[in-house]
Amino acid sequence: MSVQDSNPRHVAIIMDGNGRWAKKRHLPRAMGHQKGGEAVRRAVKACSKYGIECLTLYAFSSENWKRGEEEVGDLMNLMKKFIGSDLEDFIANGIRLRILGDYTAFEPEIVALLEDALERTKAGKQTLAVALNYGSQQEIARAARLAADQGEISPETIAANLYTADLPPLDLLIRTSGEIRLSNFLLWQSAYAEMYFTEVLWPDFGEQDLKLALDEFARRERRFGGR
Ligand code: IPE
Ligand code: IPE
Ligand code: MG
Predict the structure, then answer these.
(1) Which ligand gives the minimal distance to the CA of 36?
(2) Ligand 2 within 6 A of 60 CB?
(3) Would the CB of 183 count as within 6 Å of ligand 2?
(4) What is the rounded CA–CA span in Å between residue 18 and residue 201?
(5) CB atoms within 10 A of CB 63
(6) How far is residue 82's CA from residue 66's CA, in Å, rounded to a whole number?
(7) Cα–Cα distance between 160 and 97 in angstroms, integer?
(8) Closest C-alpha residue for ligand 2 atom 11
(9) Which residue's CA is the nearest one to ligand 2's atom 10?
(10) Cβ of 61 below 6 Å from ligand 2
């Protein structure tokens, strides 16, 4: 198998451990999230470098509203700042932004910023899909409802109505921070994805950590039920 063949087209990351990163340093959780934003920037660059067509990042789950106003507010402010500081770079580097999840539940200012970013990055060749107010069970229920409205419920028609319908099949799912669970992320899409769990906390995750995951992926034998 050539290096090219063994490279995943679509990598998704559950970016976990910001809070523990901050706690270890006696810093506020918001600082962990801020450092997590820097790790996002590194991951996007590294994926471009390794020619990965699509990177999907779990940024805010439909269950993360439980965290309370202050932390949710910090995350929203961080998102606004991130779009402000990085949108031009994304456009310049051919990154197409996609959103998975019902982002219209966010405050109007953020919805407007996100929609502007979607519009201005749409010519990009590499995809950065960000899961925002995303829950996989909700996504599957919604897709099944849409498929039923269209007259047929089957694996194909459900898949065609998921937020990920036009993205490449998920090859590699990474979770940082040592937790071994999916936390309502890409349940359908993970059917035959390779899973990779690392103890590294998200704010510490860098190009070398991604490389380790890609090397491990290249060693896996995928069978998709065949032999
Ligand atoms: C992940 O880090 C970021 C989000 C869920 C938004 P956490 O905030 O979950 O960090 P831990 O799990 O508490 O360390
Ligand atoms: C998953 O992490 C959500 C994101 C990374 C955005 P959580 O920290 O919310 O997951 P649990 O609560 O540990 O399962
Ligand atoms: Mg967590």
Answers:
(1) 1
(2) yes
(3) yes
(4) 7
(5) 12
(6) 23
(7) 19
(8) 183
(9) 183
(10) yes
**Interatomic CA distance for residues 61 and 67, integer angstroms:** 11
Nearest-CA neighbor of 164 among 144, 181, 188?
A: 188
The pTM assigned to this predicted structure is 0.97
What tokens appear for 60 in the block?
Answer: 């805010």
**Ligand 2, atom 9: closest residue by C-alpha:** 64
54: tokens are 């699509």
Q: How far apart are CA 135 and CA 115, in angstroms?
A: 20
* Selection from 47, 53, 58 nearest residue 100 by Cα: 58
Task: List, in order, residues 6 or more apart from 101 with CB less than 8 Å away.
Answer: 60, 62, 131, 132, 133, 134, 135, 139, 163
Domains of the chain: 3-219 (3.40.1180.10)
Contact of 78 with 106, CB cutoff 8 Å: no
Per-residue pLDDT of the chain in tens (227 residues, 90 and over written 9): 444 468 999 999 999 999 999 999 999 999 999 999 999 999 999 999 999 999 999 999 999 999 999 999 999 999 999 999 999 999 999 999 999 999 999 999 999 999 999 999 999 999 999 999 999 999 999 999 999 999 999 999 999 999 999 999 999 999 999 999 999 999 999 999 999 999 999 999 999 999 999 999 999 999 999 98
Strand extents, DSSP E, the chain: 10-14, 54-61, 95-100, 126-134, 172-175, 194-197
